[in-house]
């Protein structure tokens, strides 16, 4: 027998507060655009950092030779070697290491420990690789690395920069004001590795650069994984804070859009999650509504409240539901996706994860919670994409002149959850003019950020 109240005020309020009707979404897109402009005007001018990447030349297809890519910035760490075939062949042979999950204690340990760990993995990889004769490096030539480092970095050149702020659960000590590349170089030296970083790039930048190798119309790179971020190609003369450096041609701007924190549809659950279980409360509020690290946890908190005040699963509250991060984003997404009449998948996940038997009414409510979280996330991501597309349009008029414009997308949430993507695209198409919308293509560029980083190492080779 169900003890469920006939109405569920917690759910109704949550749905209402998460709602993002088109006019509100338009306001959000505009607010993001304002913060982009402010961030381009002066360092720290807006919530979006709009970081200079010093990537002024995108891959042309001529790149040739052996380059490496190191990827650090989320759940996993990865090494790869990339053999670039050059203009004639255009073939890329890409050898990847197994993804290594970063031990939790290293995420909040010292820089020495973290970079020592990376260098040791790198040393293993290099020791075991098999390079065809054509790609072997001449005597004395160092192996060059494109280092994908996906945290906000104050970059001072293509191969140097300092961490501005840690995100996504990382907080590494001993790096204040220190060049990230120097930290890695020291660790590599300590491991006797004769390698050097020639390009320090964000994963969004790697994704854009990698995608650009095959498609000239790629103008944006977006990641929706553990965290979220976006970069795009801008005109240098449209970047006031760059004027003292140089002013012609194009460059990539790393927006760090996850930092956007204004007028968002924030609920009590977002606030409580932010305060109780993130290492950067008050920051990255957009990221915390959009990306994989957080969606499950928001859902868990809503369900917990529904149990406590509306007896969602009867009189008792499942023990697991009180455990932080007990509901993964993956499970939340699986429940949202369940379109069976009886919501049997929802039932089995609740059973597995929370050890409850949920009746159909309870399963329906859980499904609505999941849908609300995913929908809000997808639509907010869509608003950010529109803000950037409109900025690109303002500078280039490419859409008005009928030119196709491609957004290269990657990240675990984007990749694995088509309904999130649907909500995201819906929002983009709601906000954009139809003729513009028809010219936008989203391309899932799976795992090209490493290739992009290696390509940028080639473009910026010291030899
Ligand atoms: P990272 O961003 O850490 O480099 P990924 O891009 O692989 O790594 O993203 C991992 C994130 O993707 C996880 O935090 C998880 O929330 C999300 N994710 C992974 N698989 C799924 C899935 N099947 N459904 C929804 N989200 C998923």
UniProtKB/TrEMBL annotation:
Residues 219-458 form the Hexokinase C-terminal domain. One of its GO terms (biological process) is glycolytic process. GO terms for cellular component: cytosol; mitochondrion. Residues 12-213 form the Hexokinase N-terminal domain. Keywords: ATP-binding, Glycolysis, Kinase, Nucleotide-binding, Transferase. The keyword Transmembrane does not apply. The keyword Nucleotide-binding applies. One of its GO terms (molecular function) is fructokinase activity. It is an enzyme of class 2 (transferase). Its EC number is 2.7.1.-. Pfam families: Hexokinase_1, Hexokinase_2. Pathway: Carbohydrate metabolism; hexose metabolism; Carbohydrate degradation; glycolysis; D-glyceraldehyde 3-phosphate and glycerone phosphate from D-glucose: step 1/4. Belongs to the hexokinase family. This is Phosphotransferase. It comes from Arabis alpina. The lineage of its organism: Eukaryota, Viridiplantae, Streptophyta, Embryophyta, Tracheophyta.
């Amino acid at each position: 027998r169900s003890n469920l109240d006939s109405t569920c005020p917690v759910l109704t309020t949550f749905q209402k507060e998460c709602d993002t009707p088109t006019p509100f979404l338009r306001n959000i897109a505009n607010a993001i655009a304002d913060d982009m402009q402010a961030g381009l005007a002066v360092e720290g001018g807006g919530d979006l950092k709009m970081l200079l990447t010093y990537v002024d030349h995108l891959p042309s297809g001529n790149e040739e030779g052996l380059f490496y890519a190191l990827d650090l910035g989320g759940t996993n760490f990865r090494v790869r070697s990339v053999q670039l075939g050059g203009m004639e062949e255009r073939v890329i042979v890409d050898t990847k290491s197994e993804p290594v999950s970063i031990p939790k204690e290293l995420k909040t340990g010292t820089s020495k420990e973290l970079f020592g760990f990376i260098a040791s993995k790198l040393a293993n990889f290099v020791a075991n690789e098999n390079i065809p004769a054509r790609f072997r490096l001449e005597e004395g030539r160092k192996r060059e690395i494109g280092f994908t480092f996906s945290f906000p970095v104050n970059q001072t050149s293509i191969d140097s920069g300092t961490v501005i702020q840690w995100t996504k659960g990382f907080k590494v000590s001993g790096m204040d004001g220190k060049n990230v590349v120097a930290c890695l170089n020291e660790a590599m030296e300590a491991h006797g590795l004769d390698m050097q970083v020639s390009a320090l790039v964000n994963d969004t930048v790697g994704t854009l650069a990698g995608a650009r190798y095959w498609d000239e119309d790629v103008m944006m790179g977006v990641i929706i994984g553990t965290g979220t971020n976006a970069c795009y190609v801008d005109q240098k003369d449209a970047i006031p804070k760059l004027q003292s450096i140089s002013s012609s041609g194009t460059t990539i701007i790393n927006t760090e859009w996850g930092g956007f924190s204004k007028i968002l549809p924030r609920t009590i659950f977002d606030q409580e999650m932010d305060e109780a279980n993130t290492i950067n409360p008050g920051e990255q509020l957009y990221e915390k509504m959009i990306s994989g690290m957080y969606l499950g946890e928001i859902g868990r908190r809503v369900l917990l409240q529904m149990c406590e005040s509306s007896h969602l699963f009867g009189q008792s509250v499942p023990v697991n539901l009180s455990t932080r991060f007990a509901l993964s984003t993956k499970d939340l997404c699986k429940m949202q996706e369940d379109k069976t009449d009886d919501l049997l998948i929802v039932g089995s996940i609740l059973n597995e994860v929370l050890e409850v038997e949920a009746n159909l009414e309870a399963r329906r409510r859980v499904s609505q919670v999941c849908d609300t979280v995913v929908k809000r996330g997808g639509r907010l991501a869509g608003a950010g994409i529109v803000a950037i597309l409109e900025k690109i349009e303002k500078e280039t008029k490419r859409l008005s002149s009928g030119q196709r414009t491609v957004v290269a997308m990657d990240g675990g949430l984007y990749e694995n959850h088509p309904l999130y993507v649907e909500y995201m695209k819906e929002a983009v198409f709601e906000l954009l003019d139809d003729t513009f919308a028809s010219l936008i293509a989203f391309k899932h560029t799976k795992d090209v950020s490493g290739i992009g980083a290696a390509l940028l190492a080639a473009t910026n080779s010291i030899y």
